[in-house]
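If your schedule permits, I should be very grateful for your opinion on a structural question. Please examine both parts with care and let me know of anything in them that strikes you as inconsistent. The record follows directly beneath this note:
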Amino acid sequence: MADGPNATTTGAAGTGLPAEAVRPRRARAEPRLGAVAAAFTLAQLVLVRPDIGLGWDETVYVSQVSGHVPAAYFSAPRSRGISLLVAPVASWSDSTVLLRIYLAVLSGLALYLALRVWRGHLGPGVLALAGALFASLWVTLFYGSEAMPNYWVAIGALACVGCFLRARANPRDRAAWWGVFAGAALMAWMRPMDAVYVVLPLLALALRRPRRPRLLAVLAAGLVAGGGEWVIEAYTSYGGLARRLSAASAIQGGLGRHLAVVDQLRSLGGRTLCRPCTGAAPNPAVTLWWFALPLLAVLGAVVAVRARRALPVLLPGACAATAAIPYLFLIGYAAPRFLLPAYALLALPVALGLVHLVTAPSHRAGRALAVGLVAVGLAGHLAVQYVVLEHTVHSSAASRADWARTAAALHTRGVRPPCLLSGYDAVPIAFYTGCGSAQTAGHDASTTVAELKRAAHGTAFAVLVRPGSRPPAYARTWAEQRVGALRAYMDPVVRQGR
């Protein structure tokens, strides 16, 4: 049976799959999807405060386009997509509140547009529920207004897969072809390797029709358009593509066989980066949804197969699986945001499975019981997500406030732009101080000691050190100052009041 927007389905009653002409369904879907997107934007602004400072990675991305601070070192794994996305605000304003509001509104609009793509394949109730499930995860709410690329990879994946299905079913749907291209380009623009993993099932499906190579060509064109800058930069700044890939792998701990499933499980309690990922797993109430996710997705797939509308549900599930593989089995640490593309795609079959649970019982009493149980489960899930989100926002705000206090202390001791920082947490603290940053070791190593000393000549320079640690040899004779929770060793230029 065709999968196109005008397809009908027999025996699909109660499944949430289209069973009649799609146009009325599309009209009914619009208000629901708009309400989900608006609620998502509002929740970000209320629950994740717009005045929360920028995180470590955010300072790197924003500094690339900021007119107020020098650009931080841009390590091999990073891509410049998110920097360009925030440029309309960050290039002329240093207001974090304005940047957060801009990203919250943009992320809500993007979620609405990505869900609209699926109107011809899933019913309005399923789509609205899928959007609500994805948007209500603490990790989605937290990163929607962050200057980070993972949410945007998820949006690109959702749009690309949906448009792929539309273009495959109806080659005359020009908007679908542009959607395939734009979705693939957005993913590659943000994180090229993530984009490749997401589209693997799409490429495999396109190759099954060798006489119709257009889908394959459009997918490839999107990946090239989005990832081309990253490849070009590999040759201009990193010594070639192979060396950049090797450096990126080294920074990520060496890509290979690693079982990071337990690490991801530990991170669900609100750890934005779990490296090294030690300690006990969170309370089972916090992780229950993670175990329910694949079960409900399988249920949704079974429902779709029985309704003879398998592809619109199986394909996003397959893309979710390939998107998750590197972060579950190929790297030795975890961050919840890495799985955002998988969560966005899995929300579709999960929503279908939940709709089936509440509509399958034939008797009124059985249906009422099913509705009650699902409602209680979803209410508990939302409560857990809120608690974890509140904890994550509080801990993140505290660490970023510490950086701001350290920056203020540095200012009082004469470290003001133009200036240069090195050492512990130098990258984010330099952003808050308005300084440049440079490191001689670690993931952000970009210079040697000799080059650092030459670069610091004639400008305010300080080395930051944690309590209990020793400064580098070249700074051990410099004056020591307490700045926030850290110690700063000041270059003699600073001590002389420059």
